[in-house]
Design goal:
The chain is built from 14 helices and eight strands. The two termini are 38 Å apart. The strands form two sheets. The chain has a six-stranded parallel sheet, sandwiched between helices. The protein has two domains: 169 residues, Rossmann fold (3-Layer(aba) Sandwich), CATH 3.40.50; 208 residues, Up-down Bundle (Dehydroquinate synthase-like, alpha domain), CATH 1.20.1090. Bound molecules: fe (ii) ion. Fe (ii) ion (FE2) binds next to helix 6 and helix 10.
Length: 390
Amino acid sequence: MFREDERTRVIEASGGLARLGALAAELGGSRVMVVSDPGVAAAGHAARAAEVLRSAGLEVELHIDVAENPKSSDVAKAAVVAAAFGPDLYVAVGGGSAIDTAKGANFVEVCGGRMEDYRGHDTATAALRPLIAVPTTAGTGSEVQSFALIGDGETGAKMACGDPSAAPRAALLDPELTLSMPRRVTAMTGLDTLAHAVESAVARPRDPSTDGRSREYGCSAFALVSAGLPRVLEAPGDLDARASMMRASALAGLAIEHAMLGVAHSMANPLTRHHGVPHGLAVGLMLPHVVRFNAADDSAAGDTIRGTYAALAAAAGLDGASDAALAGALADRCARLLELSGLSTGLRQLGVTAADLPVLAAEADEQWTARFNPRGVDAAAFEGLLSAAL
Ligand SMILES: [Fe+2]
């Protein structure tokens, strides 16, 4: 399921946190900088990780001062702690914020300067230190990606900062760590994984040499989420279902690494910025409308889009007599998963009005993810999509 030639080795094991010390030592670590966040620390996961590392004979510095949606200044704080300690390995324990802050601190501690200097890809000026990602949510995909998403210090806009050496060397997927997620977080991170799987499967490939891989990973991830998300919502203690969702998150993360995302993500950023809609909810709300919009493409690309949507639907066992019918079934399934999440199903419930749409549409059109959507879009198309989701 995970190809051997990816940069990140994926280790799936319930109770696998106990193996973190051996894994760190195997990767050459002796002084380990552990980056986590206060919520994860309160659940006991950060202290447990530190204890496992120490009992393997490693020196540990624990940094839990990580903010949600980390900014350049959060990275700078972590990098100062790292520079004083002098790590030879990083471990991130948490969701996307902790993993991205660890990646950012690795850039700044090793290469100097500040996060803004590393916007783009292949931007590290020296090889970064090995990083082990230990996710405690199932959603971001950052555990297998070479990018960190960090807020610009002045504008707050998300910067994608990436380098091949920033990708975690290993991702330790221990489903027991996701049991501490509140239902709302389980739902929102699950919807984010869903959107990653569906958007990246049809996105224009960022790396043409691996075209097809994002579709393969996306199909596997979608099948897992389609079956697994209802189960984790209904039976939060079901470890097999939690493991499915963690696997889906990593597979969908790899799909993004090869192909990028689409317009559900383009619209999510302004919805979060102007209306405080959490990322996973924003993409989950927009996704059914995006699938219907893309599937209706009557240009030459339309058949390919519908064919890929049909492959996603078929991977999850959905029925349809034609590619168009299967694409419709995919959109319906995405809408159903949003409904099952128990979160808002329309933008009006979140305080968005018709008068807000032109600004949201214009900002969505400026997002870099829009360029990777398989069907061309403009501000008018975005306004139509947002209006459908009101
Ligand atoms: Fe996302």
